[in-house]
């Protein structure tokens, strides 16, 4: 049993560290997934704390995994891990049996798992942690107390500051379909080799005062339109396919309400998209840098579009008060969160291909990018 416990200790510890690191790469993504749960439960008040909870959960997963590998405070650590996996199992079980949430976000956007896959994973982890809980006395620390404490604090600080970095900048690894190098038009199509849903049309008729249902292959032998009164028809999915495009809801609209998405992505010339989400119309820190980028783009004859979910505020700020000649396109705020994790930033495009992405904190790099002609 001692060997089994040591193998489980290493496996569980590494898995929690890996899971935490994947999510810590993009804490905003986990926060948005939490918001999805909160919305289903009607806990709108909790969305204000989503990001804090996301960061705290990532820190705990990684630190607990490190502590398990070190054998530090095994009883306390495994007890906390047991409580955490019970909570995770409840969440994934709720997602499976309620059908209201399709993915749990257990490994972030980099390794998407369906709800039932996450539920099975959590059940297996629960069994492993229960074994560790039962035999925690067999787990001994490998290093002196001070060395263990140092490594625990080091991992805590690393994850905390790392998350602050990606929140200010952008995720180190972009696992979303809008990542640099991707062709967005291709991402709006079902994956190659995917299988569409298998659908059967089910008809509902009334005969002799009773409702009966059948599909096209099962019409009754005594079917007669005088006896059978048509009521309804519906499409029923008999086998779920996997022909869902990675990008489903991206759309840009002009001030007149015209959908300009296809026109923009099929453009034969490079262009820039400046993102201003939840824009309140007030002058901000990025204004001077945006002015410089706008000037360079005009000199190089590179179109620049303003993408926002606050078109009225943007119009007043950019075109009415400051006379910028910049097309303003409206985009859904949720889509903007996926395209660019920060509220303000810029994406360089060459037709449908993403050439570069910058958060507000990195917008100085765009000047060099434009001057080097990398957008061509």
Q: Would you give an account of this structure?
A:
By secondary structure, the chain is an alpha/beta fold. The strands form 2 sheets. Strands 6-5-4-7-8 form a 5-stranded mixed β-sheet. Helix 9 links the parallel strand 4 and strand 5. Helix 3 packs antiparallel against helix 6. The chain starts with a helix and ends in a 5-residue tail after the last helix. The model has no long low-confidence stretch (mean pLDDT 86).
The general outline is: flat
The helix/strand order is HHHHHHHEEEHEHEHEHEEH
Mean pLDDT: 86
**Number of H- or I-type helical stretches:** 12
Strand order of the largest sheet: 6-5-4-7-8
Radius of gyration: 26 Å
How much helicity do the residues have? 40-55%
What is the count of β-strands? 8
Structural class: alpha/beta
The portion of residues forming beta strands comes to: 5-15%
Distance between the termini: 62 Å
Question: Number of folding domains?
Answer: 3
Low-pLDDT regions: none
Q: Major sheet: size, sense and barrel closure?
A: 5 strands, mixed
Short note summarizing the structure:
By secondary structure, the chain is an alpha/beta fold. The protein contains twelve helices and eight strands. It has three domains: 2-168, no CATH class; 198-239, no CATH class; 261-371, 3-Layer(aba) Sandwich (Glutaredoxin), CATH 3.40.30.10.
